[in-house]
Amino acid sequence: MKYEKEINRRKTFAIISHPDAGKTTLTEKFLLFGGAIQTAGAVKSNKIKKHATSDFMEIERQRGISVATSVMTFEYHDHLINLLDTPGHKDFAEDTYRTLTAVDSVVLVIDSVNGVEAQTRRLMEVCRMRDTPVIVFINKMDRDGKNRFDLLEEIEKELSLPLHPMTWPINSGKDFKGVYNLHDKSLLLFTANTKAEEEDSVVIEDLDDKVLDEKVGEKDASQLREDAELIEGVYGELNVQNYLDGKVAPVFFGSAINNFGVKELLDTFIRIAPVPRSRETTKRMLSVGEDKFSGFVFKIHANLDPKHRDRIAFLRVCSGRFERNKYYHHVRIDKEMRFSNPYSFLARSKDIIEDAYPGDVVGLFDTGNFKIGDTLTEGEDFYFTGIPSFSPEIFKELVNKDPMKTKQLEKGVSQLTDEGVAQLFTQFGGNKKIIGCVGELQFEVIQYRLLQEYGAACEFRALPFYKACWLTSNNAAKLEDFLRFKQQNSAEDKDGHPVYLAQSEWFLNTEIQNNPDIQFHFTSEIHK
Ligand code: G4P
């Protein structure tokens, strides 16, 4: 393999969590370990403030800042780590789902007090679609959380994810004394605000050693012995291949804010997390080790500030070597393109780069040539599969307020939906244009951008739909009949695929039951 050395030193991943579980704090600790930032608090400023939800321009401003940290690259023990940031704000969930198509593994943060939350479930569903390897970090052990056995059971059950504890906590809340590393057989004693080099770790090969009683007291020592015996009996050794196949998730306990248990997590991550792997395309399996370059666009960020109206397409390199100023083949528009200012994202600053390797993410200035899922190659025509669109959750009719600007409106809507801001459906029979988004905020963004960038005025009328399902069937006549009978609820997506817009779960289930010849899908693959 020509680029074996570069490929094998890269780990590209994302930290995901329900808002407030501690994703930002953990990200920051990772960057501190990697030497990419010097002080705590540096990442915080990039976080979309939870309370600024009503002012989308403010959120966009903050999102603008966060573009610089969309990908944070740092080195740790000779490894090059690409940490892809995902927006914390739920209205940008679709951005997060797409980012997950560009990573090789994830770290899932769970709040020990709240356990599994709504967003945790949805994120895991997306991970499961690609069998993404997951490591779980149970955070906030310094707070009185749920019983740890109950918590593990809850996670396993709710996320259908078999777990494997790597460390085990000694109490929680004010009685939290630390964690025992079941793998290294060492005891890590809890102190608040631990600095990387100051961790108080004691090797305890044999848990019957009296040192354990001295360190944590007799009562907790005997509890730990009991717990450890139980865990070893149930779980045994971690099977790394099962983790890589997405079948089991190693679990760590800690406290991100106190930098406690984070190093154990990072060290194990480095040891077991996958390096970039081969990927399926519409034509063939693409080996990561191939000499020729290929990559795909998984996210497009447009700046709303009229003074800096730039657009950045985020490209994940999948094989070969990406080089600055070299011509590449844009498969969808069948055009050769070169990039004179591609940049990488070294924490907090954007740098022009000369080249990039599999696992890396490159930022490309875009003047409207890209849409999500686009592929660049050295000439071959194919697309990467497994880049889905998800059903929106809010649907509104797009109403043109200025008939003189119909063309501009159409162009604007087409471009914005290419960027992935929203999805566009056209009702069958009528010509009603329906915009579907994951969050209310997107409607404001669309209205604002259509006016500012395309001079088109529009308004939205609420529609009573709750989910879009893509329809397929081996029986074309049945599908056609269904679409005709359900005209009010039928539409086609931007690529002409038929879609059923359900008013409620009850209606949806009824239709699924009544139409066994039709398959209802909650996601649609951009390229199959
Ligand atoms: P997020 O990105 O997942 O949304 O979470 P974030 O890291 O911002 O953490 C959410 C809140 O939880 C923050 O407090 C953070 O300080 C706190 N936190 C993170 N890790 C721990 C931990 O191990 N223990 C405890 N007790 N708290 C933790 P905040 O008050 O919302 O924000 P801030 O004022 O501290 O910035």
UniProtKB/TrEMBL annotation:
Pfam families: EF-G_D2 (PF22042), GTP_EFTU (PF00009), RF3_C (PF16658). Its main location: cytoplasm. GTP binds at residues 17-24, 85-89, 139-142. InterPro entries: EF-G-like_DII, EFG_III/V, G_TR_CS, P-loop_NTPase, PrfC, RF3_C, RF3_dom_3_sf, RF3_GTP-bd. It is found in: Cytoplasm. One of its GO terms (cellular component) is cytosol. One of its GO terms (biological process) is regulation of translational termination. It comes from the Bacteria. Keywords: Cytoplasm, GTP-binding, Nucleotide-binding, Protein biosynthesis. GO terms for molecular function: GTP binding; GTPase activity; translation release factor activity, codon nonspecific; translation release factor activity, codon specific. The keyword Protein biosynthesis applies. Increases the formation of ribosomal termination complexes and stimulates activities of RF-1 and RF-2. It binds guanine nucleotides and has strong preference for UGA stop codons. It may interact directly with the ribosome. The stimulation of RF-1 and RF-2 is significantly reduced by GTP and GDP, but not by GMP. This is Peptide chain release factor 3. The gene is prfC.
